[in-house]
Amino acid sequence: MWCNYERSLFWLEETVSRMSSPTVGTTLTVTLLSKIQLRSRLELYVPNFEGGVEQLHQILSLQNPWYNVSLWALFRYEKLTGNQPGVFLILGVPSEELPNILARNLKVAYLTGTINIRLFQDTDIPQNSELGLLPYRKWRKEIQISYPS
After folding, report:
1. Where are the domains of the chain?
2. N or C: which end of the chain has fewer CB within 10 A?
3. Is 9 or 64 the better-scoring residue by pLDDT?
4. Residues 65-76 pLDDT 10s
5. Of 43, 54, 41, nearest to 140 (Cα)?
6. Under CATH, which number does the domain 38-142 receive?
């Protein structure tokens, strides 16, 4: 929502402060557009991954020191089973990190090889987009991925 006048901004801030958040444990706030960090949306498929989310974060961090994995955000995850088991991720990466990822040919080191990153067409999305933001480093607290034995 755009506020062209101080009065409309005041009204918006007052109204939002009284609204309840649909997500338990969070609050709604009014933020200047200039303060919202843009992120590039990327897809990453991690084949045959059977560990926990904390383990995946640690592997990606340790094997990719040229990336700042701690700043990556998880927008969506999907556990895959069947012919191609693994984990499919949609990540939000700070836009300033994108040239580094492109310079490495959209690849992430994983175990003894590499994984290709797919870049979305509409790369820049606000971190508080409709997909929701879950900082990558908080995966272990928020999401538990389990695999059938």
Report:
1. 38-142
2. C
3. 64
4. 999 998 888 888
5. 54
6. 3.30.70
